[in-house]
Amino acid sequence: MLKETIMKLEERALNPAKAVASIKAECGKDAVGCFPIYTPEEIVYAAGFVPVGLWGGRTEIKMADKFLQGFCCSIMRANMELGMRGVYDQLKAIIIPGLCDTLKCVIENWKTAVPQVPMIGMVYPQARWNRAAEEYLEAELKRVRSDFEKATHTLITDKNVEEAFAVYEEYRAAMREFTEVACDYPLIIDARTRHLLIKAGYFMDKKLYMEEIKKVIDGLKAMEKEAFHGVKVITTGLIGEPAEILDLFRECEISVAADDIAQESRQFRTPARKEGSVWEKMAGRVIDQRGCAFLAEQKKSRGQMLIDMVKEREAQAVIVCMMKFCDPEEFDYPVYKAQLEKAGIPVLYLELDQQIESFEQIRTRIQSFAEMLI
Amino acid sequence: MTEKKTSKQMLNELVAQHYADAGKAKAEGKLVAWATSICPQELLEAMDIYVVYPENHAAAVAARKQSMDFLERSESCGYSIDICSYARVNLGYKDIMESDACNIPAPDLVFCCNNICTTVAKWYENLATELDIPFILFDTPFNHRYEAADHTIAYMRGQLEHVIGQLEEITGKEFDYDKLSEVMRISNETAYWWRKACFTARANPSPLNGFDMFNYMALVVCIRGKKEGRDLFRLWYEELEERAKKGLGPWKEGEEKYRIIWDGIACWVHLSPTYKILKKYGVNVVTSLYPDAWTIFYETNDIEGMARAYSYYHANRCVDYVSDTMLGLAADFNIDGVVFHSNRSCKLMDFTVYEQQRRLEEKAGIPSVVFDGDMCDPRVLSQAQYETRIQALVEMMERRKAAKEGR
Amino acid sequence: MYLGIDIGSSSSKAAILDDKGALIAHAAVNEGTGTKGVERALELVFDEAGVEVDTVKFTVVTGYGRITYEHADKQITEISCHAKGVSYLCESAGSIIDIGGQDAKVIKIGANGIVENFVMNEKCAAGTGRFLEVMARVLGCDLSDLSHLAGQSTKEVPISSVCTVFAESEVISRLASGEKRSDVAKGAHRAIAKRVSGMCGRVGLKDCVFMTGGVALNSNMVKTMGETLGREIKAAPYPQEVGAIGAAVFAKELYEKA
């Protein structure tokens, strides 16, 4: 039963195109694309669509070169390529947040490159310690609602948004529980399975996904905790892909005790505030998010956060999944690296891109790191 | 009476003065801020905080071929070779604090306006964290539409008010609104003369050599709010106007055959070869988007106008706006072609270059080339490759001229 | 007997320790993974040791070819093996700079040859042996002569490009503008040393630094590396075979632990 659910979800995550195509049959809803890093998915859900995550993928880049140089991050090159090839034409709209310089350019280029897919660009505030930032974000979220209504010919009431937000809060709580429980089952939920189970949620109606992930949580809890003699690590970075690196984790007996990955825990680790309107709560989650490379802080908290995670989950080391050409992540690294080293925590730096063909050098790195720690 | 100085003499003196004064200010116990190049420095100057500009400093270090030591330093701390070389030079400098080229004193606070890119916010966040000093961020949301939305303006105004509070706290003084008005007024005047001087290049031939514009730009960054700056740019304007009246071109020898826009930051670290290769083919850079970059015009004491002005810096605006501006410049300056610097340091500028290039071609038939380079990292540019690109552009421009003249 | 094998991208190495742990044979062959290089290296090393294959109690394989090699009892990465090997040959060793054909690594060693920390070069070939191969070709000399050529330099010509392809064209234009071959060769050594010294900064160097890998046979490279880092750098004894030796030491340890 547990195994079956896991396989079903893994299958989802491994075949995004197929997964998206099956959404309509499953719940009668159309899909809307959501770019990295954060988008107000609740608004999309409130309008009766299923938000799907667009985090690149392995593909040959032919058309995207018309807009983006080779030194652009491989996720954005892949998204641009897929958009231009018409792969996203079935999506009713897409939302792109301008959270880095590359994303800003992608918003601009999209207008010309993929005119057939309506795109809503949005801008999150960075000076988040300022009350004006919260007010701005609330207004920006409402602006997105209004543009989204126009693009999809829908009407989204506050009540719809409140309901959607409640679903998402439940989903986020479930995901926090999943990552905590999974930590005790490093063999069944190895690095690759952990990643795929989380990722599957980006290609399903959250209500349906929640049923499945809760089955996984309950199934795990019914079992005895697994003894593990390998190395427990915290992962950090934009995305834990390509999945081949996670196979190498398993091969080298490395399990993920917790993550600070933008595509994983950063999506759900910050719970909403108790008070305020739904718009305030939605804005509040972004304002309250800590230790994310894409949201500025007056003093960087990521290093200490990672140190705390290592201690709390009794991990031995931190593995950095560095997406090549990702400026925000590349800027954070030297600062938290120094802090981790000062705390005596070993750090493995893996420079990745989505189109990697050969994993030999990465294998050597991961294996050496494991050899060093065991 | 002493002999009147040329603007170039004044330029060199003022740049040297700027760095010397910064050191002196620090020694005297004044607060020093490191700030981004197009930020509301008016607020800092009004509070008597000495402002230095790491981008400018990095460019100066690179122009004197001293950047490698700092690049290597920051790379050895783990900074990727793929990120902005201004940042890498400065983050290396932060540790070493000594260059043969020129020096800036350690900051007591950092002041960042992200209208030039998101990257500067990451860079300044690192400085604030590692030096444990206040981080003031003026966040100007990117304008994906032509005009800034009302909530964006309100946000920026709210921030400026907040910044004023922060500065009062840091300095322990009440904010000096009179001084602010004065600095605002001078900044506007400086911007006026800077723009006017740059626009003399509309004359045919242009009295202005665009690489001079890059040199003067160093100063418009650092002493925009000071009377000396304003006077310098007025003098520069007068000199250029005089040259234009006499029909003088940009160079002592050689005639201006082609007039181009240089898009992007200069290759400070290879300034001379990039310049000489253009000149060899009679190509003069008559303008870029920079003449308008510091034309931050607003009514004195109008905080909202100030916010809007900073938010409308071209790197913070949509492709449509930039493209229209470039087409406007092309017509205004009678442009033959465009050189796009695909600058490994600047993803924000790079990743719309191809689209800008197409629009120029489609809408105005203007040829252009893209070359790979970098502003401070000497390892990126290949001179041979650069020259080949420039030659190709010259051939295209020549064909277009011939077609126009019915040759 | 304990056998260590190191199958690299462009060479194969083997080493044998006797039952007491003394190094009795080692050999290197300039043919890497996917060739008959391993067989040849094994033949050499067994001949040298004068022992039969069936006396081997445990075999450890390392290097890029380790995954596909089927006749070993265990595979361990070259990083662990280099640390182990250098520490076996010189107990006081603190750090290793290993410049191989495709990869450069800097390793910090702890007690008994354990790896404390390491970094590897990114995908780019700058800072690896491959860069020197390209330079040798452009300068029209054998790789083995490059060191000697650089030794004759009186005025180093800086090579600024990081990219191997750009560096190649830069060198060609330097030569065309009349720079001496020896000065350009020295510049090429410097370019690698600078790249690698950045990696040293990332991981931090301890005292007593050894260079390993085929490039360590190039005495000018060792010298230039030392100049660039401003500290003494020595070539490890048997720099090419040190990984295989480390693998053999592991073989003994693992056999005795089991």
From TrEMBL, chain A:
Keyword annotations of the record: Iron, Iron-sulfur, Metal-binding
Xref: InterPro entries: FldB/FldC_alpha/beta (IPR010327)
Entry cofactors: [4Fe-4S] cluster
Signal peptide: none
Family classification: Belongs to the FldB/FldC dehydratase alpha/beta subunit family.
Name of the protein in question: 2-hydroxyacyl-CoA dehydratase family protein
Organism, as annotated: Anaerovorax odorimutans
Automatic annotation (TrEMBL), chain B:
Domain of life: Bacteria
Pfam families: HGD-D (PF06050)
InterPro entries, sorted: FldB/FldC_alpha/beta
Entry keyword set: Iron, Iron-sulfur, Metal-binding
Organism field: Anaerovorax odorimutans
Similarity-based family: Belongs to the FldB/FldC dehydratase alpha/beta subunit family.
Stretches assigned to coiled coil: none
Name of the protein described by the UniProt record: 2-hydroxyacyl-CoA dehydratase family protein
Named cofactor requirement(s): [4Fe-4S] cluster
UniProtKB/TrEMBL annotation, chain C:
Cofactor (UniProt): [4Fe-4S] cluster
Pfam families, alphabetized: BcrAD_BadFG
InterPro entries: ATPase_BadF, ATPase_NBD, CoA_E_activase_dom, Dehydratase_Activator_Redct
Transmembrane segments: none
Span of domain ATPase BadF/BadG/BcrA/BcrD type: 3-251
Keyword Repeat attributed: no
Keywords linked to the UniProt accession: Iron, Iron-sulfur, Metal-binding
UniProt protein name: Acyl-CoA dehydratase activase
Source organism of this protein record: Anaerovorax odorimutans
